[in-house]
Amino acid sequence: MTPHHAQPDDDACYLALRAKDARFDGCFYTGVTSTGIYCRPVCRVRTPKRENCRFFVHAAQAEQAGFRPCLRCRPELAPRTSALGHVFETKPWSIQDASSILATQAARLLDTPEAWTESTPSVQRLAQRLGVSDRHLRRIFEAQFGVSPLQYLQTQRLLSAKQLLTDTALAVTQVAHLSGFTSVRRFNAVFAAHYALSPTQLRRNGVKHGHDAPGQGIHVRLAYRPPYDVDAMLQFFGKRQVTGIECVTLEPGNQSIGKTVAVQCGQTLYTGWLVARFEAAGNRVDLRLSDSLREVLPWVMARVRAMLDLDADPRAISSLLRTSFPRGDGLRVPGTLDGFELAVRAVLGQQITVAAARTLAARLVQRFGEPIETPIAGLSRLFPSAAALAAASGDALGQLGIVRQRQAAIQAIASAVAAQRLPLHAGADVPATLAALKALPGIGDWTAQYIAMRALRWPDAFPAGDVALHKALGVQDAKNPAKEAQAASLAWQPWRSYAVIRAWAAPPVAADATK
Description:
By secondary structure, this protein is of the alpha+beta class. The protein has 24 helices and nine strands.
């Protein structure tokens, strides 16, 4: 049966292709029949003739149709896209969209480096995680995307390998391993079959790798779709930056955020540092990170994409929110590199000012965070591990100015994370994680929703009890402002996290829009 997956509007795609419109980067790909190559809409080569173009929503579709990725525009750099944008761009949420949402969640999980294994049962495990049969998952996935889950996964792994081969000096063996291939021979064979050249030929064909000689750090590039309000994003992080673990630079031409990093991979903990610098002219982020993070490079790249919300599709979001929030098209939802860190900081921020929460976090880092050497001024410590805070005594936390209720919440979260009972990352089951969070002492709906918004990357989180949100929506004087805010938010599903950010950023506009 031919899958009835959503197809792009070919005429609209060709217009965007001719205009090199970066707003559509990653939203579709163009296969050129005269060359056998597929490109991003921002590719700077001469626009092909209309009759030679085929358009695809996903890179996996283009590769399944026999096209190879362009070595010039490099499809692996494109912002990722979500079917949610196509499902909700022109209509509100409906139960009829359940299959599309399920397929989208499956694709989201396959996008994570944790899914990049070569074992065939990975689809069965994915289906089990989503609560459906593997047959049903394959059926709805092919109907939505036009390719099987394994074909989609293989494209993600190959494109990841292509970026590592192009942007870094990592050995081919390392690239194969980091991209999920357990056999270098298998990696070489699959790469050659899909791209008509071997991994080593890719480097010899004039594609320069990054400046990542040992000891000098690693450089990779990450793209995003405009508009992107870089100032707003960095001001959000800057207002909350904690001494020792992060530093934000707002000066023009050097808008960046630096962070210390700890990534647990299996039984090994990798630590290091990174600096993400925005290059607005190219709609991309230049990411520099320490050599010590080489073994977990795909994981770190995925976390940075999530932290800076680089894969958001402003067109889809704004089509639903612009009526209520007309001046927030470039706003993104700030994420985090570490879900546990975000959760602890959310608890510290309960019912106090941002400045006071920042002070408490800095004390916590100084007392329980491990020191680390970095070449970046201001980056000298790691955020405390879950094990360290789980073992911390109440007296030790109290000496930092943390009240008993917050102590209990922090220790409960730390114990659950340390025991691997509470996943706090973008691939986590949102309803189950929300329920688990609210079952912990000192964690209410506001904190759980805030964690879901920033750590779980749930686009539909909504902390209905937030006082600042009540003021922004003009319901602070209502008998039950949380209920009023919740009722108003139904019109913004499934992008309520973005509605919250817009409301916080422009209270007068948001308030007027609700009257």
